[in-house]
Amino acid sequence: MKKLAILATGVLALSLASAQTVIKIASVSPLSGPQSVLGESIKLGAQLAIEEAQPRFKAMGFDLQFAPQDDQATPDVGVAVARRIVNDPDLLGVVGHLNSGVAIPASEVYKDTNLVMVSPANTNPRITDRGYLNVNRVCGRDDVQGPVGAEYAVKTLKKTRLFVIHDKTAYGQGLAEAFANRAKELGATVVSFVGTEEASNFQPLILQMRAQKPDLVYYGGIYDKGGVLIKQMRERGLAMPVMGGDGLDSSELVKIAGKAVIGTLYTTTSGPIDTLPKAAAFAKNYKAKFGKDSEAYGAYAYDATNVILAGLEAAIKANGGKKPTREEVAKAVRQVKLDGITGRIEFDDKGDRKLSDYYVIYMKTDSYPGVVQKIIQFAPPKKG
Amino acid sequence: MSIAELLSILPQTLLEGLLLGFVYAMVALGYTMVYGVLGLINFAHSEIFMIGAVTGIEVFRYLGNGGNPYLILLLAFIVAAAVSGTVAVLVERLAYRPLRRRGSKNVLVPLITAIGVSFLLQDLVRAIEALWHNEFNLQYPSYDTFNYDVLSKLGSPLGLTLAVKGLIVILVSILMLAGLNYLVNRTKLGKAIRAVAQDMSTAGLMGINPDVIISRTFLIGGSLAGVAGVLFGLVYTNVTPYSGFQPGIKAFTAAVLGGIGNIPGAVAGGLVLGELETLGGTYLGFLTGGNFGSEYAQVLAFLILILILLFRPQGLFGQNVSEKV
Amino acid sequence: MKEAQANLVVPVVAALASLWALLSPANSLANALLLVALALVALLKPQQWVRALTLAGLTVVFTVLIREQSDDKFAFYGLIGTLLSAALLKVPTYIKVLIGVAILFVSIPLAGLGNSLFLELGVQVAIFSALALGLNVVVGQAGLLDLGFAAFFAIGAYTWAIFGSGQANNFIAGNHFPLNPWLFFVFLPIAVVTAAIVGVLIGLPALRLRGDYLAIVTLGLGEVVRVLANNLDHPINLTNGPQGITPVGRPPVDWLINILNGLGLGRVYGRPIDESITYQIFFYVLALVVVAIVIVVNVRLSNSRFGRAWVAIREDEIAAKAMGIPLLPTKLLAFATGAAFSGVMGAIYGAKQTFVNPESFTLNQSIFILAMVILGGMGNIGGAVVGATAVTLLNIDILKNLSDQLNTWRQTGFTLLGYNFANLPTQLEPAKYERFVFGLILILMMIFRPEGLIPEQRHRAEMEEARLEAKDEGKLQEGSA
Question: Which SUPFAM superfamilies does the UniProt entry name for this protein (chain A) (predicted)?
Fold first, then answer.
């Protein structure tokens, strides 16, 4: 047994010495099924960041590779993929997941080996409230974003009758609840709070709006359903404004809703691309590379990947140019300070962004992005 | 909410339910016809429906700029029916017929095949749309002509509104259903289909080639689903390669509700289900004080389905065939 | 080939392949030859004891290989293949048991210490095996088509999740929860009973219907359970809705850590045994034990008068009734049994994941379980396990290996038959088409092997008969045309 072990180590050492040291970064998101378009935006954002960084790492003596994975939006596949990833010694960072329901059990797996995970999309407070060293996110939190929207709707727009809808996902419901609670505190009436898993037929909700006559509709969910809801509302002659969270922040919203998008509001931590020079370059490169506009979580995934890469570079430097351990990378990622395309990124001790600018954006015309109405600075709650 | 307010939206609710019901009915027919001849739950039928919707979009994409919207729509119906029908026939030819050739009497084998076909078609359409246009969410154009409220001229009786496209759904569905009724009951092909449905091997002995008839059945069911896909897309505007699944399951439910294998039953089942879902989705929240809202519409529909089946195990219109011993 | 020749060829090939593979690990040709040797054991017909010895030898070789190279998938699938061969081929029973125990309880945990993915695969295979066995009782043995089987899995998972976490505090006054994690073991039988009761409750209305009516009603009720799980966060917060329940308690494993360290496994692991790997081993072994119990119960039931009654109902309901079999109670028993099997695994699943939310219990999950049963061979206990193993490994490992490989080729610009993979458009990213390939495999399997991987004896005979009949009919048609 001993001899075999020596033999094995010898072979392993040989294979390591022969090639440039490989470092892999994985993206894990649904790449098949109805949510694949969202998952793919994560994958493409990460891919772009990695391909841009490859020459840099080559100069340092590393072969940086990208390993996209499909978690099928289900927890059991997600956990199996997580196990695959932690057992690949070359893998030093994970960008993902899309669904909080997958991210929570999967990050328990990453935690075992302190493999750093930076989420571009999981806004559920619980993701970071567990206080794991290796879990971070570049997106906002439901319990911050919802209240920001409520403040604007009630205080600035003076809306009093709110009709709140969510898509029955952890994201949508969390956001809608946070919005509704803050709005009630501010004295507005939530005339209805409904969830629906429906993707195409929103007539029952529209009929309810006709009866309730709200002056604002809040949608907690993603643009693919939100856009359809807005379009169907306008086609049926309902004119009240629709507001949503960063799930609506996508050029696809405009494509789906068409002219009906005019008048829609959403909150997001990612400022309009034209305000940041880096972001404009990102948009251009993305379009050139993949032949379409960056959608949904593309920008967040790009930032998440760059945060990991920055942490990785710092860890490599600290390690004297050698491949760092996962724990070193995780620690370095926590320390990263970076001006990303979604604003300044600095993590607090839980892995949330220290200070986020929340933009309230108004769709004045049917072209993306809309106009910034207000910028609200908001720090995440100290206690979860 | 006062009762008057609740009642004020009732007529519109019923109308919306009717539109949804007609779409379900058209899809349910495909399930029911295939079931009638083969005794097979063709799970892939929902994908045939989706392919119709996507084909319709492609027609609008290439002809949508200028031109008469009604003409383009007519063309969309025809192309979608042709494409969906062809795919349905191909699926039958490539996936189901080899199973029949092997003489498997187990109904679950084709069921699993159908599920495989369903996965395959979804990702195939996704790949095609991605390579062709780099798109996933596909939209029907929103023509003002189609959104014009036809009831506004009549002074909107009962506060009803009905867009032109809603009217199109109703008219086209009725036309197609009447056509199908004629085809099945009055033509030679219809007679052959009924014969094969009743007893395939005896029909074979009578000089009917069951394979040809089965193929035609898939063609008819597929074409109907294609037209239904265009109608669905027109009303609900957004389609993805995965849009078929939910309506497919509901249409299948409708087919069973009406008595699977029974054509008028499928129509009735579709309409009942459409109404149930819309009424439930609209009123459940009001009636339960917000505790059990729209999200339970589906539960309500299924519970009523079970209730109906308990009292009429053969479905609304199904004949109670005594088991052959 | 004659038996005498086989007696010589099989062990020699196996020995040569083993030697080569051991001397040059990670040599794919050597590995391939090993798999060929394994195939020869199955295809040629050597004497029983030659077969047994060869299989035992291969078990040892694969185990050593997987220890040397912790990501050696060849060796892992070699182990699975050896296990399968030992289980299916004609070998003395005690050898079967020996090889089975050696692979399941020694080789795979040892492999898992080097690469915890193998344990995860093992747990998931075990979980889905129990689910497939449960559905097999309902669909395969009693012939009742159930399209909402994931519901029972959900019931089991939520039974422990609600009380094993702080969730129950939301509707039971006083801060009693989470319960003592040791009570997990009490909740396993509770989950069995709860799931069985729900099985009866669902079965009572549903089982009055036949065939496809039953299918749609079970589909509906399965959806009802999921929708309830997704929505019962108000008016009272029972399930926490889409947010899911976390952290779900797990029984303490300090004792097991001590045992494993005492066995000196820390050296194999490369560092002292920690909690995370111990939990993986714990759930792996627990799931295996539960599957073993499920199989024993299932075998006993199948050979009892209930089992015979199920088959009778499946074959001809009216004849069965005429023979005095009470239809509804017998069907209900099948439903309850199937539900019980998946209920207990639900509880284990919840504890293993430490997180339960409705996304694990969708219609798709039910369909996947059904695919396992049919792919494996309906009505057959071995078939259900093989089907579950095949579908699970395909879905969470084999197809992923395939897309990883293609992706590596894409990044390194590998050229195959003149096609450079670097040119593969992002729209055709291999990871996106795993379900596509899965669908294709389903179709091909059903066309070329409709009776399943391991058909039930009775079923095989029927298929054969039907094939002959179809042939005759074909002739008839040709004649008439």
Answer: Periplasmic binding protein-like I
Count of domains forming chain B: 1
Residue type at A32?
A: S
User: Where do the domains of chain A lie?
Assistant: 19-141+276-353, 143-268+360-378
β-pairing verdict for C415-416 and A356-362: unpaired
Given an 8 Å threshold on Cβ–Cβ distance, is C230 in contact with A65? no
Cβ distance C14 to C54 under 8 Å?
Answer: yes
pLDDT tens digits, one per residue of C252-291: 999 999 999 888 888 888 888 888 899 999 999 999 999 9
Q: What is the number of domains present in chain C?
A: 2
Q: What's the CATH superfamily of A143-268+360-378?
A: Response regulator (3.40.50.2300)
SS3 of chain B: the string is CCHHHHHHCHHHHHHHHHHHHHHHHHHHHHHHHHHHHHCCCCCCHHHHHHHHHHHHHHHHHHHCCCCCHHHHHHHHHHHHHHHHHHHHHHHHHHHHHHHHHCCCCCCHHHHHHHHHHHHHHHHHHHHHHHHHHCCCCEECCCCHHHHCEHHHCCCCHHHCCCEHHHHHHHHHHHHHHHHHHHHHHHCHHHHHHHHHHHCHHHHHHCCCCHHHHHHHHHHHHHHHHHHHHHHHHHHHCEECCCCCHHHHHHHHHHHHHHCCCCHHHHHHHHHHHHHHHHHHHHHHHHHCCCCCCHHHHHHHHHHHHHHHHHHCCCCCCCCCCCCCC
Instruction: Using CB atoms, pick whichever of A235, A255, A258 lies closest to residue B163.
Output: A235
Same domain, C124 and C106: no
For residues C175 and C192, membership in a common domain is answered with: yes
Which of C317, C374, C425 is facing B109, going by the closest CB pair? C374
The architecture of the domain spanning A19-141+276-353 is: 3-Layer(aba) Sandwich (3.40)
The answer to the question of residue C74 being in a domain is yes
Q: What is the CATH number of the domain that holds B252?
A: 1.10.3470
Quick one: pLDDT at residue A110? 93
- The identity of residue A111, as a single letter, is K
Confirm whether pTM is higher than 0.80.
Answer: yes
From chain B, pick out residues whose CB is under 8 angstroms from the CB of A197.
295, 298
Residue C39 domain flag? yes
Answer yes or no: do C68 and A70 touch at CB < 8 A.
no
Backbone angles phi, psi at A353, to 5 degrees: -70, 135
Question: Could you tell me the CA-to-CA distances from A336 to A91, A127, B265, C478 in Å, in that order?
Answer: 19, 19, 65, 77
Whether chain B has a CB inside 8 Å of the CB on C234: the answer is yes
Parent domain of C216? 120-372
